[in-house]
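User: Hi! I'm working on a homework problem where we have to compare a predicted structure to a textbook description. Could you give me the structure for the chain below?
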Amino acid sequence: MSKLHVDFVRKAIEERFAGLIDMADLAKFDEKKRQPAFLSRGLAALAVQIEHQASARAAAACVFDGQDDRGLDAMSVEIGSSQPRICLVQAKWSDQGKGGFDEEAVHKMFRGLDLLFDRAYSMFNSRFQPLVPELQNAFEIGIPKVTLVLALMRTAPLDKNVHALLTEKVDEQNRVSDVVEVKVLDLRDFHRAILGDAAAPKIDTTVRLDGFVQESMPYKALYGTMTAPDLADLYGEHRRGLFARNIRDSLDLSDVNVKIQNTLLEQPEHFWYFSNGITMLCETIKPVGRAVPGKVGDFKLTGASVVNGAQTVSAIHRAFTKDPDTAQIGRVMVRLISLEDCPPGFGDQVTTTTNTQNPIEERDFKSLDQGQVQLRDDFALLLHRSYVIKRGERTPDPAHGCSITEAAEALAAVSPNAQLAAVAKRDQNLAGLWEDDVYQEIFGPSPNVYRVWRSVELLRAVRAELQTLRDGLLWRADAAASHGDLLVTHIVFRRLGTTAIEDPDFAWAAELAKVPELVQDTLAWVLRAIDEEYGKKSHIIAAVRNTERIERVVRAALRGLDSESLAPALGEGYQVTATEQRGRQVNAVTTLTVARRIPDGTVLEFRPFTKPERREMTDWLAENPDRARATWNNDNGRNPLRWEADGEWYSPSGLARKMRFEASGVDTSAQGTVRWFVAGEGSLDDLAFEVRQSEGIEVEDGPAGD
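Assistant: Happy to help. Predicted structure tokens:
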């Protein structure tokens, strides 16, 4: 790659993102410094477009590079798929095509990721804050897949030490299950992305179909069987270029891909029957020699691309590489569709449709189980409620019934085996619960309708209480209340009197009435257990998804609850009320102004601190950027902030209160010093704490209020 290619990408960034990338934080710098920063941010936006379909404006809005970006430059969130996906980008521009990425950059990037997992959103700059609601939605849906994208203006491979560190960091994140992956985009990727389809490799090849059949109306197509060795060779020659038009590429490390590979290695003679097959689009299809339908035929393909079955192709290659003697027995159905006489856009329709049809899942087979059929009848006859067992049927209103999936999740939570709660958390579709042995452990041969429905009611009650608590929780506590619903439900169930839960006359309402208080105490003990067992920097997600960890946390929390001791107070920074009231014996504003810690004229930025604030104020702040900025003056007494929205002077807390009232009508006190930040240095609370510490003032109670 030459300087010509770098200039090509530069020009594309300038054309796409000029006037769209936020450069306000660098307004005081000259063009010589602003231009590289713009190109780096533009590269991050371009990476967002490569990973997610987005307009230039939408991609530019995803960029938050600058002070307090925490080692990350852009973020996009995708919640339309079965598993939410978060894409985090770190971009490095270089005019010479040598964009660097060193070990310190790796550490910074993963520290930023840890902050996101801990819900420490206010640690990021003001340009990040508008992205938080969508990020929260992703976490609300479930545990997302996180892709860390290194957008590097270079062609050379990463330094081996950097690559090793990245692998180590990813492995640490994925000890429980695969949550984090790293993807490198280099100059070649950006060059191809800008060129579009014209840059995709054109694959011309010859394939052999056994027992082929030809379709001629309305468009030309062939289908037949290919052998595993032939498909493995095809992939070996062309690699990912074979999937240029595919929506999902080959997803090499996905659970589905591994299952396909194992099927070919363990039951190769059955592979044709178990596989959904492969669909390829071709510009043209021409027979090589004489081709008789129903026999073996060779066909010359031009512009070939696998648009459905990419996982199957790559899994066949992996299996054949591992054990060619076994895998060579495998065969798979292949469709070849010629685009010669098709209308414009037909190929895209084929690609989209074949990748969005609903596959049969393991849970679909469980709807045929006699126990589920009996449960459906018992719900109707004994409870006068609905129980939906087939995917696609309308789920009843919560008061009038539930689905098989909600029942399975609830039964996993209340099972004596705490590990099942972790198994349920590992997959968005509860895939682990439908494995035969787990399914039998959860439901048993003859599930009792009262136990099933009451378990569902308990899980709903626990979730409702956790949701209520979350408005007052911060960071790790919020993450625990969100991801720990099944863990908390398991412990609460064990604290209730449930020996007669299968009895129709059991006074279940009296037990449910105990849930709110139990949930509060349980959450406190769970947080204490996670922090003490695995440290305050451990991931909450790991504690709820790992079978060994969840058992240890359950044992520790139950010891606390069984001791009859008062539930531990939530730690510093875990709840709003404690944070708002701590350390008020020394006034933060006075501390800062006397020390003149912040120079006059410094612009501060406001960052919503609590979940309700983010819900109520994010859009309001985005409507007028001046609302999130204020200028500091040390000589203005208790009112050192001049709000850029109206030019008036306020105390940090007074202004925070006024802003929330204007945004939502909510009039409540707020500690402004944890909401107003000096970019790159910290909140007023942090800075006051530093001053007091440096001056030897007592700091045990934490930073001061204002």
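For your comparison, note the following. Residues 339 and 347 are 7 Å apart (CA to CA). The longest helix spans residues 449-470. Good luck with the assignment!
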